[in-house]
Amino acid sequence: MKKELLNTEIQEFINSNLNSDITKLLLKGVPFKAIDAKQIVEQIESKKRCLKKLPNWFNKANIYYPNKLNIEQTSSETTAEYKASLVSGTKLIDLTGGFGVDTFYFAKKIDKITHCEINTELSDIVNHNYKALNVSNIRCINENGIEVLKQVDQTFDWIYIDPSRRDNLKKKVFLIEDCEPNIKAHQALFLKYSKNVMIKTSPLLDLSAILTEINHVKEIHIVASNNEVKELLWIIERNFEGSPKVKTVNLKQIKSQFFEYVFNEEYSANATFSKPLSYLYEPNAAVLKSGGFNSVSESLKINKLHQHSHLYTSNALLDFPGRRFIIKTTLPFNKKSLSKENISKANITTRNFPLSVDEIRKKLKIKHGGNVYLFFTTDINDHKIIIVCSKVL
């Protein structure tokens, strides 16, 4: 950590060049002999990435930024705040602290927080930033979190782990046994020191596969932000037995969307089916990831169009965890039927349909955009159809 980067003149230079061309800036050089231009540019690039992702950091003076990779890997403030809403108590230990965004939000809910980070420079950066952010209830320890847990030999209300998804060559890995620490290998240790464990994993993992490798999973949280799944959270409770609840959330600025079901009950849930009615519903990304398609139908008392289409319909407008549309008309899939609608521009979505969006646009000569929404899908009778809609605002 180069503390010279926090000098007033350098901080002013960083802030005044956030929108500068980085290549030109490197060629031109910087007016500071004691600091390498690359280090200043790294601060500029990392800070720029925090504008929307980490506004508290971006807007605070004297924040020191790590490299772009650390910023890329860290939670957003939006998802960190959601995680903090799941915990309570007086003591929490974050075994894989990283840039410390999750820990920062846990500190708003828990009295005493321990932040473990094996990277010395990153640990120093986080410790400095917490002081700049006026946080006083987080203790930063520059050691391997697993070893810290053994050394302190005390219980915590919560243990939080966000395993590194990079190997020794900095290449991305996804399987839990390839991440560090190996969650599968340390389950007993975690539950020795806490009744409650929260594990963050890649959103690419398969729920069923992970449930065969992690024990005592009480809840699975599928967290999306603006309809993009960002992370899976596995809540483990000591001695819990049974099927976990799957809780989906799509975090949005105005109104977040929630849906939940019990994992094993999806297999016995009774979905109902019908042709398109007055309204069409498309599940958000978190619900789609969850796989709870029959549970959506049974719980919300809403009809599916087809077992594999994952689109829903009703005669009355319902609250729904996803997008809602008014159905204008339903057409058989052929060029002649659509041509009568005089649609030259539309937003196209496919579900359980043999052609891609690009293929459809080329075949039917439809440009992107406008207020018309076309869903190309398969109905209850296995007919290929086009549903012409407008969005419910």
Automatic annotation (TrEMBL):
One of its GO terms (biological process) is methylation. Gene3D superfamilies: Methyltransferase PG1098, N-terminal domain (1.10.10.1110), Vaccinia Virus protein VP39 (3.40.50.150). InterPro entries: PG_1098_Fer, SAM-dependent_MTases_sf, Thump-like. SUPFAM superfamilies: S-adenosyl-L-methionine-dependent methyltransferases (SSF53335). One of its GO terms (molecular function) is methyltransferase activity. Keywords: Methyltransferase, Transferase. Residues 279-321 form the PG-1098 ferredoxin-like domain. The keyword Methyltransferase applies. It holds the Pfam family PG_1098_Fer. This is Class I SAM-dependent methyltransferase.
